[in-house]
Amino acid sequence: MKIVILDGYTENPGDLSWAGFEALGDVTVYDRTVGGEEEVIRRAKGAEVVILNKTPLPASVIEALAPELKYIGVLATGYNVVDIDAAKRAGVPVCNIPTYGTTAVAQFVMALLLELCHHVADHSRSVKAGDWSRCPDFCYWNYPLIELGGKTFGVIGYGRIGRAAAKLAKAFGMNVVAYDTFAKDDDDARIVSLDELLAVSDVISLHCPLFPETKGIIGRDAIAKMKDGVFLINTSRGPLVDEDALAEALHAGKVAGAGLDVLCVEPAREDNPLLREPNCLITPHIAWAPKESRQRLMDIAVDNLCVWQAGAPQNVVNP
Question: Fewer CB in 10 Å around end: N or C, the chain?
């Protein structure tokens, strides 16, 4: 079986092994495939299995790879880069990795939030620049320091990652509310309307999938309903946030700080207005990427292919 991995570098920059796939067939790994549809077709032609992360696989490419193409594996939870309807018409299952990053992403939510509260990196840089050595007092702080206990943590999208983030917030002594059309109250969160969540939350963390109805869920109207001085965290999908509206709110102080691991366009464009806001932390889509999480992703991706070969496919997004 011929297996082509189109963009393996972000999943495995050299600290993991492709041995699981290599045990199943003849594997060719490309770090990146950036030459457009023609390059994708040239590299994947004749492959029964195509594995990808962010390389687009539109209908025209899927049709060009048929009938040899039998399986598409996505090294991620999101699968919007694949035309799943075209794959279904071609009889090709598309399988994703739904659960690998729950712990890592929830942990990263708190990393962003704690940095907004304490500015650890900035204070460390200040000390190394000699500011503490020259200080007449035994301590100093360059930013307000914020205690989380007793404040309200609002979760928009109360799925696996949202629930994990809620547990961590509760461990810090926060009150947790959540908005989700399918969830019910539990020991960690009270389910409320979106308007109530926006009104009562001191911190809002986004964990909903990107659908037409959630695109821009954080825009000018939503921001106007928030508390003054709220923190916004987004480790889900960039287009959930109207970036121009958020930049305006950060500049005006309506939103005191934001921690974003995702943007509408990735990599970030140099003219993105959020890059100019000092109270906005932006990281390069790395919440998912601890080695432990990537190994779990690799293991599930291999297992997806194994069970498909055995005639019992799992994690199929286009049944």
Answer: C
Q: Of these residues, 22, 37, 147, 266, which one is catalytic? A: 266
- For residue 129, the model assigns a pLDDT of 98
Residues of the chain where predicted confidence (pLDDT) is lower than 70: none
2-100+291-309 sits in which CATH class?
alpha beta
pTM: 0.93
Does residue 266 carry a catalytic annotation? Answer: yes
Q: Which of 237, 243, 277, 294 is catalytic?
A: 237
Q: Is 237 a catalytic residue?
A: yes
The 10 Å CB-count burial string (b at 16+, else e) for 130-140 is: eeeeeeeeeee
Contacting residues for 101 by C-beta, under 8 A, at least 6 apart: 77, 161, 287, 288, 293, 296, 297
Given the residues 119, 163, 285, 296, the one annotated as active site: 285
Quick one: pLDDT at residue 60? Answer: 98
Task: Give the CATH fold of the 102-282 domain.
Answer: Rossmann fold (3.40.50)
Helix (H/G/I), strand (E/B), else coil: 103:
helix
Are the folds of 2-100+291-309 and 102-282 the same?
Answer: yes
